[in-house]
Amino acid sequence: MKGFGNPNIWHTENKWKSIAQTCRDKRIGIFALQETHLTNNRIEALNEHYKRRIRVFGTPDPINPTGRGGVAIVLNQELITPERVECYNVIPGKALMLSLTTKGDKITILAVYAPNVSGSSGSENADFWGNIKTWIEGNPRLPKPDILLGDCNVVETGLIDRLPAHDDPEEATNMLDNLKQFLGLKDGWRTTFPDSKAFTFLQDSSGSQSRLDRIYVTEKILESAKEWKIETTGVPHADHNMVSVLVSNESNPWMGRGRWRIPDYVVKDKDLMNFAYEKEKEAQNKLRNTEISADERNPQKVWFDYKRAIIGKARERAKQIIPGLTRKINEAKLNLDRTLNDPEMAENEKIKQAKQLQEMLTKLESARLTKISIDGKVRHRLEGETPNRYWSQTTKDKKPRDVMFALKKPNAEANEHGILQGNMYEKNSQKMANIAQEYHNLLQDQGINTDQEEEWQRQIPATLNALKVEISEEHRD
C-alpha cells in the first residue's frame, strides 16, 4: 500500500476508499495488504466506517505504527461471511494469521511482509522465515497455514524472477524453502506458468523489476485453484502489483458467471437505441394487428421476443465498442507480456520498455478506479437522498447468497446399505435448476389420471357452465 494515505478516512486521498472499491470491483473475497501504517485505532475506525462492506484485521508495527510496516487482511463481507474468525499476531507488524470457518470448512491464511535483502546479505530476511517456523512449531494446537501470501522481499529463482537477472542470498532463500517444506506449500503462480516472466515490483530509479509478491498454497488447494493473475490495482501511490487467485472449496457446486446485464457504456450506444426504437414500433404494431393470430400477438410472447432481440443486439455491440480506457489497459498488458517474454530483445532495451509500459498501466488503472469513484459519487448525489432501489440497497447489509450445494439426481438409487453414492448428486447449478424445474412441472400432474380423456371432455362443459362471468358482446370479436 505504501502508507495509509490521508489520516482522515473521509478524505479523498485516504487509500482505504480505493481498497474497498477494488474489493468490490474485482470481486476479491480476501485481500492481504502490506505496509499499511495501521494503528489499532485506525483499524477500529475503518471497521466502523466500512462495516457494511469490508472487515479489517491488522497487526501494527510495534515501534512506529504510522510510519512503517503493518500487515492487514481484509474480508469482503459482500462475498464472504465466515461463521468464526480466529486472528493470530505471529510477528507484530510483519506477519498476521487468520483462520476462517465457513459451513464446517476451515482455511488458514498467513499474510507476511518480510524484511529486505541487500546485496549478499539476507540474514534479516532469513531470520524472519525462521521465526515464523519457530512460532508455528511452538503452537502445535493451532492450524498450519493453507495459504501464505504477501511481500516476501526475496525471490527464489533470480534468473527468471528478476530483471536484470541475479540470484538472492542463499541464506534467505534456504530458510524460505525450509518453511515451505515444513508447511507443504508451493508457489502457485510459478507452478502454473513455469517459463513466463511477470513482475510485481518496479524500482523507479533503475527500472529493475522483481516478482517479490507471491501466493504459496498447499497441494490440495493448488489442484483446484485457477485464474492466477498479476495485475496493477490502481490504488493511489501503491508501488506493488497485486497477485490473485480463485480458490474454491471442493464441495461447492459449479456456478456460472451469473445473470448478464447490459454494460453501462452499451446502454448509451446510438446504434442500440435506434435498434430498440425500431423493435419497439414493430412490437406495438404486432399488438394492434388484428389480422394475425391471437397467439402471435400475445403480449407476453411479443414482450419476450422484444427483450430477446434487444439482448442479442446488446451482446453484439458490447463486443464491438470496448470502452477506450479498457482497450488501452488490455493493449498495455499484452505489450508488457510480449516485451518481458521476448527472448531476442536485449536486456537493456527490455528494462526500458517494460518500465514505460508498467508506468502506463499504473496510470491507466488509477484513471479507471478514479472514474468508477466519480460515477459512484454522481449517482449518490442524484439518487442517494430519494426513496428508490439504489437508496434501499445502500442502507441495508449485503450478505452472500445461500448456496444450494447439490440435488439428488432423478431416479438415483441407494446401494445395498441404503446410501446414495457421490455420483448420485448433481453439483452443476444449471443442471440443478433443470432438475428443480422438472420436479415442479411434474407436481402439476400429481393426482391427475391422464388416461381418462373421455372423462376430461365430459367435465369441461360442466366446469365452464359454473362460471358466472362472461365476455361482453363488445369484446367477443
CATH class of the largest domain: Alpha Beta
C-alpha end-to-end distance: 73 Å
Strand proportion: 15-25%
Give me the Rg, rounded: 29 Å
Mean pLDDT, nearest integer?
90
Strand order, largest beta sheet: 4-5-6-7-12-9
Q: Give the helix proportion (percent range).
A: 40-55%
Please identify, by name, the CATH architecture of the largest domain: 4-Layer Sandwich
Which stretches are poorly predicted, pLDDT < 50 over at least 5 residues? none
Q: What does this protein look like?
A:
- This protein has 15 helices and 16 strands.
- It has 477 residues and is of the alpha+beta class.
- It folds into 3 domains: 16-246, 4-Layer Sandwich (Deoxyribonuclease I, Chain A), CATH 3.60.10; 270-320; 407-463, no CATH class.
- The strands form 5 sheets. A 6-stranded mixed beta sheet has the order 4-5-6-7-12-9. Strands 1-3-2 form a 3-stranded antiparallel beta sheet.
- Strand 5 and strand 6 form a beta hairpin.
- The longest helix is centred in the last third of the chain and has 37 residues, at 347-383.
- The model has no long low-confidence stretch (mean pLDDT 90).
